[in-house]
Amino acid sequence: MSRKLVRPRDNRMIAGVCSGLARRFGMSAGMMRLIFVLSCLLPGPQFLIYIALWIVMPNENRYATVR
Questions:
Q1: Which residues contact 44 (CB under 8 A, 6 or more apart)?
Q2: Cβ-count burial of 67 within 10 angstroms (0-12 exposed, 13-18 middle, 19+ buried)?
Q3: What is the mean pLDDT of residues 41-46?
Q4: pTM of the full predicted structure?
Q5: φ and ψ at 60, to 5 degrees?
Q6: Contact between 25 and 35 (Cβ < 8 Å)
Q7: Which residues contact 47 (CB under 8 A, 6 or more apart)?
């Protein structure tokens, strides 16, 4: 789990948040998306967290140029 938390340029559906989280935790992007969709069935701030991560997580290409 030493990978940085970034939104990858490839394998995106909307913003790349689920794909970035999947890479960070060593899961498939499809599995992370499924977990997110299933979590939306429960009450809670899932969409707000997704939007906050969209804003906070840097793009992969932006992170590569800074480094």
A1: none
A2: exposed
A3: 92
A4: 0.78
A5: -65, -40
A6: no
A7: 40
DSSP letter at 41?
T
Place of tokens 């899961």: 27
Percentage of residues in the chain having pLDDT higher than 90: 51
Between residues 65 and 22, the one the model is more confident about: 22
What is the number of alpha carbons within 13 Å of residue 35 lying toward its C-beta?
12
Higher pLDDT, 11 or 65: 11
Chain center to CA of 2: 16
How many residues are recorded in the chain? 67
Helix axes 46-56, 29-39, angle to 10 degrees: 140
